[in-house]
Amino acid sequence: xxxxCGWLAVAVAAALGCTNPPGDDADGGRDGGYLPWCRVxxxxxxxxxxxxxxxxxxxxxxxxxxxxxxxxxxxxxCISTPAVLGCxxxxxxxxxxxxxxxxxxxDDGQDWTYVETxxxxxxxxxxxxxxxxxxxxxxxxxxxVGCEYWPVDLDNAVTQGFDATIQQYAVVVSNPTPLLADVKxxxxxxxxxxxxxxxxxxxxxxxxxxxxxxRLDPREVDGxxxxxxxxxxxxxxxxxxxxxxxxxxxxxxxxxxLDNVGVFSNDASLLLPKSGLGTEYTVxxxxxTIANTPENxxxxxxxxxxxxxxxxxxxxxxxxxxxxxxxxxxLPDPPPGTTGEWYEGDTIEFTLGPFEVLNLETGDFNADFxxxxxxxxxxIAVYSGSEASDVPCFADLRTRRCCADHLEEQLIPDSxxxxxxxxxxxxxxxxxxxxxxxxxxxxxxxxxxxxxGITDDTEIRATGLDRVWTYxxxxxxxxxxxxxxxxxxxxxxxxxxxxxxxxxxxxxxGVGQFVASQEVTGISNEYPGGDPVFILTPPVxxxxxxxxxxxxxxxxFDFFIIAARAGAVLxxxxxxxxxxxLRSEVLDNLVSPAVTYExxxxxxxxxxxxxxxxxxxxxxxxxxxxxxxxxxxxxRPGDPFGLVVYGFDAYVSYGYPGGLNLIELPE
Length: 667
Description:
This protein is an all-beta fold. Among the domains are: about 15-90, no CATH class; about 95-140, no CATH class.
């Protein structure tokens, strides 16, 4: 029997065809077999969601023909229940979203009808055909996007002629959602240990993609007076945290201080919302390198720039324990049940309420909070850092390379740390400063990384480097780059690296990135050469497909650094990455098949150095930016990637991770 085809429906992008008629020996006495669904002209059948089959009886033929068309290219699918509709836009009666409107599928499956609009003012948005509160969604997704934050004006350096503690502390918020966000800043006027007396100090309403800088008053957490001057007890119990609330999910960062204001002691922190906080943290930190040690002239700087660990309560009656890796300064007037004097190996037990901060500070040369374990029975925020420290650390002043800078980060809870990291070092500074016009030599520059175990029997392996040096004990020695690293809970190692590296472990672990002091680069103090920065490296398991980030004003050099799987399509502010981005690759051959990661180091500024201490801003692209990966086939979010934001000027720098998910990962 020949092939017959009578009627053909023509549609844009549809693929149509005919089938052979049934054979003579089919069941029911009809050629080709009996098709129970093909009874009359126009009957429809869905062999799958992708294909619609239509029954037709060509003129002059006793046999039916089946016409097929593909539904997916039409943006449809073949609907067969509760009734057979063939290619249709939707299933009758189902609900969906058109922007922030709820829509219902029509009875014929070919269109949507309006039902209602979700209340944006209340923080609702349409998700899967329902009005859902945006903050409730953020709470479930667990990322750095959220609706409640607990910033802290962390301790900063006071040195002769410079007081960073009285400079402008700021929290920057941005709204990445389609919702209106009513953002409020609160303080607590009650003393620690008493119920909070909340007071609203600032508020703003943000539309989509809006950004606002909250310039906030100092709220010292080291026991100092409101006049600054570092006149406090250093270790202190205060109620001086800020609380930021929003009716829609936002992103938040803190800058301490906000801009490069000439105090040479700056850094920034990505703030993590309450929905991403945990109850257990193993502290990543850096040593105190500036200390008053009259008993030892080899390390005596005649002043203390201390490292700190700040634990913040977010709920009433939060019971906290801190197992110390170092001695700390005593706490005056401690609450009942504690002496206020604690030493390495001791466990502090404390009760915190909302807004309350237990700020612990060191008082010894190379004292270090790394490996300290903080636990609580309710979510807490934990920060670590230094008033100012040098990188690398040193055993005595003869090997010091100036200068120290403020360090700070809000810590990632142990439950969100991963097993795989791509460490992408910051851009080498000497080529950038030379390109801007300064007569400096272009030299290789090291960067420092800390690897920290959070459980016993952690084995870490690295790939991508030919040579590695350890800096354990603040003394440098070369080690094999291929030897595994074994760490127990709270143990750590410091490595000097000269390139990018991929790290794998059998258990979750933490990674801290520390940028070196200006003198390490050989850039003289007449030119901008940066200083130490502390950045927590996000694990690959917590990478995101899009980020909103900010670069502050008044820094000569600003960058963003991307680590992504090879082939990822990336956009900055909805345009391809600029040609000024420097691209490199690092091969991960510890997995099979091997994976190639691409590293992009992208400048956002092109200053002009006209002479010693003469820097013109040149081209600056400071402000808020969005970077995302895109699936070119669909336009939808593409492969997740990692992001770090970094900037520097003369003896000062800032840096922070651009964002991360904070889901709980398996141990």
